[in-house]
Design goal:
This protein is mainly alpha-helical and 142 residues long. It folds into two domains: 33 residues; 94 residues, Antennal chemosensory protein a6 (Orthogonal Bundle), CATH 1.10.2080.10. The protein contains eight helices and two strands; from the N terminus they run E-E-H-H-H-H-H-H-H-H. Helix 5 packs across helix 6. The N and C termini lie far apart (64 Å). This is CSP4. Keywords: Membrane, Transmembrane, Transmembrane helix.
Amino acid sequence: VSAELYDNTNRFVIKINMNSLVLFGLIALACVAGAEELYTSRFDSIDIDAILQNKKLLNSYVQCALDKATCTAEGKELKSHIKDALQNRCTKCTEPQKMKGRRAIKHLINEEPELWSALTDHYDPTKIYTVQYEKELKEIKQ
């Protein structure tokens, strides 16, 4: 089955056959199916520096992530994605989330090693992600 489309002056504009239409449909479907959904960007505007510079606030987020305290809405959202982000190299993270995550990790490693250690013990007890992200972690420490 094919169709030829003409404009109002009877000039040929486009010719579509069924194979082309099916191929186009499959490509479109693959693009939609292959597109990863990103985590919500609702909290992307959070001032990460204000959290990192406030020990009490930072500690409350860490305690939330460690299941040792109640969580704010932001803390719940963060905690719900930590394992998935580790497993999938943050492929569902928005750019602001990646940037703020790196900044938070750098701060924890360099300024709050006891909190970093507690988080890695909790989320990476077998050190699989520590090995997987070894290069990035070395760059952050510098």
